[in-house]
Amino acid sequence: DAGVIQSPRHEVTEMGQEVTLRCKPISGHDYLFWYRQTMMRGLELLIYFNNNVPIDDSGMPEDRFSAKMPNASFSTLKIQPSEPRDSAVYFCASSAHYEKLFFGSGTQLSVL
Amino acid sequence: SQQGEEDPQALSIQEGENATMNCSYKTSINNLQWYRQNSGRGLVHLILIRSNEREKHSGRLRVTLDTSKKSSSLLITASRAADTASYFCATIIQGAQKLVFGQGTRLTINP
User: Which residue from A112, A88, A91, A111 is spatially nearest to A102, judged by alpha carbons?
Assistant: First the structure.
């Protein structure tokens, strides 16, 4: 199994631009999580899905952030418009039963 | 807000020594997990201990859980240079299905 696959690995964009992060979970996993990691705030849970349905999005910072999971093998996290304070590493993780999580390698986002 | 807090924030030891990291949490949990993160990489699950367990072993790892004190410890025995990483505790709060992470302990093993 290739594990959780995230793309792109690095993203540099200008303030105001739309950013889309992508995630392919491990096949057979029915939970998918989006986390954001910064030095100041550590690892923050943004949103998680169960069977493609968003369960808890209370961690999404504001309306500029949105996440979708159109099918069991794909999820996106979109930021529109992006701001410099959104600069962080964004991780996607999947799990078979919300306990043991498998993380992707992350997307390093820099908003200039 | 963070559920778990690791202590110390940073730890530097010599290769071969044992490393102990602690985690305290605030609310009742279903289980507590430890993850490792190498620089520039995603987190990797190390071990899970349930709320009704007191101690668990996996290779050179030993985890303890004291629910009365709301604390856990991770012991890495006979440390190696490859153990250099950040270590995070994470908890699943009772009634929830999401994993909340602490701020982590940065461990450096000196050769």
Answer: A91
